[in-house]
Design brief:
By secondary structure, the protein is mostly helical. 82% of the residues lie in helices and 0% in strands.
């Protein structure tokens, strides 16, 4: 963690670029897995995005309630 903190202080553009890339790749991976799971059901192409966003909203709401 000290490395990330130092990277954020010394090269903020590189840090935020890598962080954005990591979030994008993670989201793409989650969408791919959701499409694999939902594929056999013949749902429309936007269904995996809706499922992933719905799960993210549920997680955020549960975290909000726990405070």
């Amino acid at each position: 963690m000290d490395y990330l903190h130092r990277l954020r202080m010394e090269r903020p553009l590189l840090f935020w670029g890598v962080l954005a890339l990591a979030f994008w790749l993670g989201f793409q991976l989650v969408l791919f897995v959701a499409a694999l799971v939902l594929g056999p059901f013949g749902l429309p192409s936007w269904a995996p995005i809706a499922v992933v966003l719905g799960v993210l909203v549920l997680i955020a709401r549960r975290q909000q309630r726990s405070r």
